[in-house]
Amino acid sequence: MGRDVSLAFLREGAKVVVSYRKEEEFAALKAAAGPTAPALYGQIVDITDEAAVAEFSPAYSRDTVSSTPLSILSVATRAA
């Protein structure tokens, strides 16, 4: 899931979890998220490392959009 899709989910009230490789990437996304940034969570994950991805995926609740650059792993719901 890319930057624009992550921001769209945030605008619709979803909680979003993203993986990233460099802290600067996540900082830029948080800045772009503006007032929705509190609903954005991130974790450094090397998506070529199967074990790291396996640990990342279940680390967040089912009501959160969780992503790697390859796929959306769970369903978004509106924040309460």
Number of helices: 3
Task: Please give the domain count.
Answer: 1
- Rg of Cα set: 12 Å
DSSP strand (E) fraction? 15-25%
By secondary-structure content and strand pairing, the structural class works out as alpha/beta
Order of strands across the biggest sheet?
Answer: 2-1-3-4
Residue stretches low in confidence (pLDDT < 50, at least 5 long) are 68-80
Q: N-to-C SSE series?
A: HEHEHEE
Distance between the termini: 23 Å
Compute the number of strand runs. 4
Helix content: 25-40%
Average pLDDT metric: 74
Largest sheet: 4 strands, mixed
- Principal-axes geometry comes out as globular
Topology:
Layout: H1 3-11, E1 15-20, H2 23-33, E2 40-44, H3 50-56, E3 64-68, E4 71-72
Parallel strand pairs: 1-2, 1-3
Antiparallel strand pairs: 3-4
Structural features:
single chain, 80 residues, alpha/beta, four-stranded mixed beta sheet, 3 helices, 4 strands, globular
Structure write-up:
- With 80 residues, the protein is α/β, with parallel strands linked by helices.
- It has one domain.
- 34% of the residues lie in helices and 22% in strands.
- The protein contains 3 helices and 4 strands.
- The protein has helices spanning 3-11, 23-33, 50-56; strands at residues 15-20, 40-44, 64-68, 71-72.
- Strands 2-1-3-4 form a 4-stranded mixed sheet, with helices on one face.
- The two termini are 23 Å apart.
- Residues 68-80 have low confidence and may be disordered.
